[in-house]
Amino acid sequence: MKKRIFSGAQPTGQLHIGNYLGALKNWVALQEEYEAFYCIVNLHAITLPQAPATLKKATLDLARIYLAAGIDPERSTIFIQSDVPEHAELTWVLSCISRMGELERMTQFKDKGKGNTERAGVGLFTYPVLMASDILLYQTDLVPVGQDQKQHLELTRDLAERFNRDFGETFKVPEPYIPKIGASIKSLQDPEKKMSKSDENLNGSIFLLDDPDTITKKIKRAVTDSGTTVEFDETRPAISNLLTIFQLTTDRSPEECVAHFEGKGYGHFKTELAEVVVEFLRPFQERVRQYDDESLRSILSSGAEKARSIASETLRAVYSKTGIA
Ligand code: TYM
């Protein structure tokens, strides 16, 4: 039997090259070897206010992006979180064994709640419990994510172990899969911050659907550190970040990248990086346009059916062990 992977992304804002290099790229690679479930987490999206019509459209658009990135619906299951009500049901049970203290420690809650926990939504607070439910419902072995989700994965493991200890073996305890390179692509405008869908400064992110002109402008405007050589250097996070993007979009080793730019300055490097990123995204952008809404709906509906058959079995076991049913 193949091992199983589960991952997901929120249908909020536009996906950027950080989402692609940190997560989607690995989802595509791993679907060869694993039985994969890729979810569009629309229930997570409403933890911050969303315009209903925008959310609806973004949900279908994210399916388009999964497919264009190379997720094969014949092999992997693509579905919308809210189509499988077991996600919300298991969240309730797991929230009853979660502790306030452990959720208060989640850095993403502090970041997204902007430090004002009195005003933050309760959904934002319990968000990681919904994420744990997503993963645990599928008896997942491996969860490919970027660095920013690591803490949520640790909580997921803790909740699985706690439930298993208190009610008997029920959940598989999943392992995170965080790539060594690209797990935290930084903002082009501030290399101390991760590239983020919710960044108000749009120049910080290269969106997967940006046109060539916009990509080129953003790369040319990217901040650089002092120094002139094009090298990986921990003390120069801006150039290291740009070089990481170059490395992952050209599939070269770090040594090859450095050798390639030896004796060349930032100007030359940025011009070449812009060309590489434009060409890298071009076939993806062409594929995005190929999927009509009707075929997407059909893929998502068979995905939900398959997902539900597994999720309902896990929830049945949970209800039986807890004395609910
Ligand atoms: P989301 O939608 O914020 O991001 C989707 C994926 O992209 C990764 N990522 C990055 N990787 C590298 N560099 C960056 N700058 C960068 N920004 C984002 C994220 O780590 C993520 O893997 N809570 C999740 C969605 C989720 C989920 C799950 C994931 C819900 N349930 C179950 C895995 C398993 C989120 O908000 O991802």
Topology:
Blueprint: E1 4-9, H1 17-30, E2 35-40, H2 42-45, H3 52-69, E3 77-80, H4 86-95, H5 100-104, H6 107-112, H7 122-136, E4 142-144, H8 150-167, E5 175-177, H9 212-221, H10 237-250, H11 254-260, H12 266-288, H13 293-322
Parallel strand pairs: 1-2, 2-3, 4-5
Helix pairs in contact: 3-12, 4-7, 4-13, 7-8, 9-12, 10-12
Provide a descriptive summary of the structure in words:
This protein folds into two domains: 4-178 and 293-322, 3-Layer(aba) Sandwich (Rossmann fold); 202-287, Tyrosyl-Transfer RNA Synthetase, CATH 1.10.240.10. Helices cover 54% and strands 7% of the residues. The chain has 13 helices and five strands. It has helices spanning 17-30, 42-45, 52-69, 86-95, 100-104, 107-112, 122-136, 150-167, 212-221, 237-250, 254-260, 266-288, 293-322, and strands at residues 4-9, 35-40, 77-80, 142-144, 175-177. α4 (86-95) packs across α7 (122-136), α4 (86-95) runs parallel beside α13 (293-322) and α7 (122-136) crosses α8 (150-167). It is globular, with a radius of gyration of 21 Å. The model has no long low-confidence stretch (mean pLDDT 96). Tryptophanyl-5'AMP binds next to β1, α1 and α7.
Protein traits:
325 residues, mainly alpha, 54% helix, three-stranded parallel sheet, two-stranded parallel ribbon, Tyrosyl-Transfer RNA Synthetase, Rossmann fold, binds tryptophanyl-5'AMP, 2 domains
